[in-house]
Task: structure prediction
Amino acid sequence: MKLLGYAYLREQLGLRVFEPIRPAMVRPVTRIVTLEECLAVPAERAPDDDLLAHCLFALKHEGIDLAILSQVLPHLPEEAFIEALQVSPNGIYLRKLAYLYEAFVAPLDIEPRIRGRAVPLFEPKQYVTGPSVRNSRWRVDFNGLGSLRYCATVRRTPEIQRLLDEDILAQARAFVSSLPPGMLDRAIQWAYLSETQSSFAIERESPTPDKQQRFMQLLRQAHEGMPLDEAYLVTLQNSTVSNPFDKAAAFRHEQNYLHNGLPGALGVSYLPPPPELCESLMGELMAWANRLPEAVPALVSASVVSFGFVFLHPFMDGNGRISRFLIHHALCRAGELERGNLLPISVAMKRHEADYLAALEAFSKPARQHWQVNWIDADHHDFRFTGSEAIYRYWDATPAVAFTLRMARVALEEDLKAETHYLACFDRVYRTIDEHFDIRGSDLARLVMMCLSNEGRLSNNRRRQFRYQVPEDVLDAIEVEAQRALID
Result:
């Protein structure tokens, strides 16, 4: 099948960037139609075999791919480009291309004669967009999530649009405000503890009480809304690791990698950008994170900051925990969580680890293909980056954002609400039994928790365990009350 648009440009020029998610190609169809595996184009609608024609086709039918465009535009014949602008000075896609050409390559030797309205670079119906910054020369508004030096792309898929329409954070605020103060305090305390334990569990680590306490304090610091800079992130990193040799003094100055347990080069599953590029892109990511425009939904911003951070991997250790902390940090800076409140997103992530891995691998797997890795011995490898830096500079955050939105909803519906329901049931059963029987408080609390955790039943082992402390009729009463509470 003949490739078109971005797929054609990538293959024709041998670009070292990711393949288009849905490549355009000639297929036996009567109109341009989006299929699951490709954008199908009838032969008569295919552009001529020149770079400019395929660029314009891609912009019109495939949207914006800055990674490919930034690499294609230096190859574009300036004379042909200027001639096309003279023929169609108001062409929307020509103007977008001219704007990007001057941003990525050099000024064009032409004075624009534009009479049309200003146009957004990213079409808001297709993408989640940021605030507009107008280029008056071409009357093109840059509205990406970042800048032309570092920009994430979020496609407005049906799933993402549906989740955005639900306004999960507004639901969370309404639910939290409906709780009695005592219940709210206990639920939030549970959320901090569970969020901490889950964030460590994702890293396959069981924190010591001291590490657990430090991370809980770190989560509470998110409400301080500190702007991100290297010094602050170093402080965060130092507080998440306990080995003094792993504590960073600055962003990394060596290449690191993720390991999947396989031997040799096969064991290297992901490589973040080389140190110099990492430092530059971290500056761009932090600058965007510190301004978090209101035009961007807070959970989208939080996801871009969190996943963007972990893909850059600026430290040799502790990146995963910091990336999940940055979700809360972004939500607090955006004013979406009242001071002290927390949505336990890492708890949901832990339960849906396969989906978390899939969101990470949507970027990490194709990025790995642009590295040559030679195993030397033990933990020593020779790394050579064979791709374009554009793969790290302009990345598709759609899978990450969809995952984060889903986990926010799960954290609210299946974790925070479930925990408050459990606490309400506990209070009801404890109060009822305590009013009718004289049982030691610690024993009653343990029995109620065990019963509620086992669908309103006390196992025979539990009954034997308490047979010399609690009468049988009390155990029966606890079961009855627990089952009533769980049903109501």
About this structure: The chain has a mean pLDDT of 93. Residues 398-436 form the longest helix (39 residues). The radius of gyration is 27 Å. The longest strand covers residues 371-377.
